Amino acid sequence: MNLIGNIIWLIFGGFVVFLEYMAAGLALCLTIIGIPFGIQCFKIGIMTLFPFGQHVREVPGDSGCLSTIFNIVWIFLGGIWIALTHLIFGVLLAITIIGLPFAKQHFKLMSLSFAPFGKEIYS
């Protein structure tokens, strides 16, 4: 079922969003300061490519104050807008019964894109 969901996700916009995250990650990695943020874009982009069957969890152990500072910077530099976009698409997809699985994936991506530092993706 995950395979079918991922194929439908890719056809209806998942691949375009993946390319956007990759382009943003490459642009951020051009500067030394932007490298940690670019890596997070790559992480979210890979999650966006095949979201069905993947889960997000907090990194075991103490992630430290550096990830908190990076999350705050991330939120102010665009994380809030990315998360709001996933929220809007999730709410719109949740209106229909067919869109509920895709809405769930948008809500999962919303939590990851709001504060990606200190989180990991696992299958």
Q: Total helix count?
A: 4
- Approximately how much beta-strand content do the residues carry? 5-15%
Q: How many beta-strand segments?
A: 2
The oligomerization state is single chain
Derived from helix and strand composition plus strand pairing, the structural class reads mainly alpha
> Per the principal axes of the C-alpha atoms, what is the gross shape?
globular
Radius of gyration: 14 Å
* Major beta sheet summary: 2 strands, antiparallel
N-to-C SSE string, H for helix and E for strand: HHEHHE
Distance between the termini: 14 Å
The helix content is over 70%
Query: Strands of the largest sheet, in order across it?
Result: 1-2
Average pLDDT rating: 87
User: Which spans have pLDDT < 50 for at least 5 consecutive residues?
Assistant: none
Describe the structure.
The chain crosses the membrane at residues 6-23, 72-103. The protein has 123 residues and is mostly helical. Helix content is 72%, strand content 7%. The chain contains 4 helices and 2 strands. It has a two-stranded antiparallel ribbon with strand order 1-2. Helix 3 (64-94) packs antiparallel against helix 4 (100-114). It is globular.
